Amino acid sequence: MASVSNQPSKKKRNPGNSGQHPHHQNSGDSGSRGGQTVKFARRTSSGRYVSLSREDLDVSGDIPGDYMNYTVHIPSTPDNQPTDSSSVAAKAEEQYVSNSLFTGGFNSVTRAHLMDKVIDNEVRHPQMVGSKGSICAMSACDGNVMTDERGQDVTPCDCRFRICRDCYLDAQKENGLCPGCKEPYKSVDYDDDDVEYSNRTLQLPPGEGRNSNNMTMMRRNQNGEFDHNRWLFETQGTYGYGSAFWPQEDMYGEDGGDGIPGGMMDASDKPWKPLSRTLPIPAGIISPYRLLMLVRLVVLVFFLQWRIVHPNEDAVWLWGMSVVCEVWFAFSWVLDQVPKIHPVNRATDLQALHDKFDMPSPSNPTARSDLPGVDVFVSTADPEKEPPLVTANTILSILSVDYPVEKVACYISDDGGALLTFEAMAEAASFADLWVPFCRKHDIEPRNPESYFCMKTDPTKNKSRSDFVKDRRKMKREYDEFKVRVNALPDSIRRRSEAFNAREEMKKVKHMRESGADPLETIKVQKATWMADGTHWPGTWAVSAPDHAKGDHSGILQVMLKPPSCDPVMGNSEDVLIDYSDVDIRLPMFVYVSREKRPGYDHNKKAGAMNALVRASAILSNGPFMLNLDCDHYIYNCKAVREGMCFVMDRGGEDICYVQFPQRFEGIDPSDRYANRNTVFFDGNMRALDGVQGPVYVGTGCMFRRFALYGFNPPQTEKFETAKNDSEMQPLNASDLDPDLDVHLLPKRFGNSTMLAESIPIAEFHARPLADHPAVKFGRPPGLLRAPRDPLEAAAVAEAVSVISCWYEDKTEWGDRVGWIYGSVTEDVVTGYRMHNRGWRSVYCVTKRDAFRGSAPINLTDRLHQVLRWATGSVEIFFSRNNAFLASRKLKALQRLAYLNVGIYPFTSIFLIVYCFLPALSLFSGQFIVQTLNITFLVYLLIITVCLIMLAILEVKWSGVALEEWWRNEQFWLISGTSAHLAAVVQGLLKVIAGIEISFTLTSKSAAEDEDDIYADLYLVKWTSLMIPPIVIAMINIIAIVWAFARTIYSSVPAWSKFIGGAFFSFWVLAHLYPFAKGLMGRRGKTPTIVFVWSGLIAITLSLLYMAISPPKGTTTESVGGGFQFP
């Protein structure tokens, strides 16, 4: 797709277009589409915009006078390189952009509002929005001087005259003289980069027709000298390292001398080591497991054949229902069990990853990382349901992840557009100034502050620094204050808004008095929500208003933490709470995003929000890999991202679409009553699928390859087998990426953003493994990703605002082929299925220390509603074109069975609920599913049961699941199958057949009484209609057992065999429903035990009384009283 980048980015600098909406273009005409026109302005107290320019401004005719805007002159771009002071201009632009709140959307102008402050407290870290430098030395100017990554003043002239960004640009425009020394500004580069690194990100080699004057492709380093390394790569020359870069061995002295033989070795000179390896299950476990699977399958076939040819003539209806259910259960067991035939374990080598990508070498003396970038996505929608403090802790765990700082970019999607979330994220970014270096200094785990300070273990374990206890005590105090600030934000925002609204009301009253208006006239002032800098919040207001409601607000983008420098920035002990003198204090890039929402548009819930993040991140950071997390799932293992990289950067990793991590949960009761941990699925089914084509995508804790999420097919590496040397290092053209893709139809697939289209081949190229082994046929040259990233530009941020607008996806393939797939409640499973269906494979990464941890509902009702949502999504998949029956040949057979099971398993509830009633029907009727309990039936039943138990034991062995967890999973399978799964099937059938949508919601709620008990929610009884089927099943089976027992005792010819058969299966049903019954009882001790004892006695007494009044046929009343005998 090199031709995708043939057209340079069009970034216009025409002030005459300031009043024209840049998006009023034909969505299909990307070639003629202009760049983003950015309005830099400051909002007044009433929410209006006033220009920041010092020049005379012309007021646009169609905009009121208070909206005085001007078009910013876009600084250095690949097509317009400045001749002087490029580094200073770029830094000034980046600082100005990172301190601005960008808003825009459909039929509106993209504006950048300079934020004087985002939180009430002082901002300390120089990367954070709102950080300030010294005051400008120009007279009558109160602007702040530009700062570097350490927060030090940047003076563009040798005389060190302090000047702000606006005054500097004005001086450059007027005469190019420094206002201090009156001398021309010199071209001073303040980067400390080594000469072998370019000061711009290395792009793809120029394709056919690409402008050769593009500065991003010039083969010169930052000193203007010829860069031989880059020339080798871009001219397809021989790429390698040797003695030209490092002295020979004999130059380092003889053996036994002081020299180091060979000196510093390059990665290509070291023995090649794999980054990951597959660990097969021991043959002593997997071989009997497969044999038992085959034996049980054969026995099931013979058993079903015997059941069909031996009907129960006395109760054909009972026999018929049981046979149909048993056939379906056998089919469902095959779908679930057969894909487990080849489970695998995997291991990673983090040391080999470090040696290959992060070690210093002759070509990389400063040890810059060659790892690809990672964009981390966190989604939240409602701060009332998802507490901002929980989200803030998740963000802090991401910002402190053990991965090259300059390679990480964190994005938070606030789908509710709430100021509370915005300011909570700003507080988190401010607190990260202390927390992240603290984690690096003392190697803290976990790096979620709440989880870390709540640990029960000894915090001093494995800590070697003498100042750890003192630092930890200070950090604990700071975190407690941080929690107080975040928890106080709702009241703070409310009080602030009330004060500003009262001020506006007083202003209006004063204006009415001065104008002589009627004093009795009602004063109407909009109840706005105000930001900390005294301006209107552009998102959702507490009191909804036009353009400020949950489903009606503009797009918002704020760079909370600007991109860090490419080299470490060590802290100091001055003016800092903790001594960070030998710790890197840089923070990863952090961006707040709230996509535009308008009435009449389908925003597609979470899937739409994730796709908006994909597009915005492609323009701002374009990380080749993306990690998505729920707001309550934090990074528990700081090396989790590196663990995932071991798979995608290893040989053969080019066809991995995503790396799925298991979900682990906290706050679950020790007995795991409702199988919330779901370990059978995460440690059993997912490991088994890892041996086929890969695990399914489960919605969180998954690291995607950006290129695969764009809807492309995996690379055909066999095409490069006969290629010439270094051909695998070249970018692909459009036909290689997708034979069906026409470059002229790119806007139809991805939208009309030129920057987004240009980022696609770069993301694909940077995501390839290193071409450091002859077997790597689809790699990239080492050292490509060591160059620093480009600074932020206004045009790029404005383009990111445009791609999160509500109209952008119209007439494109977003949600259909590209990105997260729309149309299902379980968009995660569908998204992973589409990738597997195109031939990609995925990998399951189980780390020794849990990679991520989150929360799960422990209340019965909440758990049932969670399962209901999953099952509803599966039913939608079954009735859609995502059904695995319609999959392509690229989906492997066992993988197809697994996806078939995903869509079919809810329908098992129909047969399961019938089968749960069969024991009761058998007991009531006096019949059984077979004519008699003969030896053949019992032998078959015994073999099937023994095989099931042995399979469970062996599965526990190779998966590591505890036997109790397996039993809890079996219990909840029946509970959910008779409640939530059945409701999902009914809901899906009504939707497909009649177009009727039914939502099963809570009808009553009760609050936890004991706030000190972390498991208090476990005992809450929240009534829901989903509880009716299990209650009915339990009651009918209990009554049937009592009825049949009494009838058998008082019968003249007791049929104990039929009673035992029916009673055995009734007890089997009741045993599975035991956790459900405990959930209905609530907290232990609330319901006295005597109540249940008396209830049982009353039920038995009533049954005996009924038998005495209406005895069975063939008996008399005398026999009831005098013919009683124990069996």
Explain what this protein looks like in three dimensions.
The structure is a single chain. Helices cover 39% and strands 8% of the residues. The chain is built from 31 helices and 19 strands. α4 (283-309) runs antiparallel to α5 (316-337) and α23 runs parallel beside α27 (1028-1049). The N and C termini lie far apart (83 Å). The chain crosses the membrane at residues 898-921, 933-954, 1026-1046, 1058-1077, 1089-1109. Keywords: Cell wall biogenesis/degradation, Glycosyltransferase, Golgi apparatus, Membrane, Transferase, Transmembrane, Transmembrane helix. This is Cellulose synthase-like protein D4. It comes from Trapa natans (Water chestnut).
Main sheet: which strands, in order across?
2-1-4-3-11-12-8-7-13-17-15-18
What fraction of residues sit in β-strands?
5-15%
**Largest β sheet strand count, sense and barrel closure:** 12 strands, mixed
**Count of strand segments:** 19
Number of helix segments? 31
Structural class: alpha/beta
Rg value: 34 Å
**How confident overall, as mean pLDDT?**
78
Rough outline: globular
Measured distance between first and last alpha carbons: 83 Å
| Low-confidence region ranges | 1-36, 42-85, 187-226, 231-263, 722-729, 1000-1010, 1115-1127
* Portion of residues within helices: 25-40%
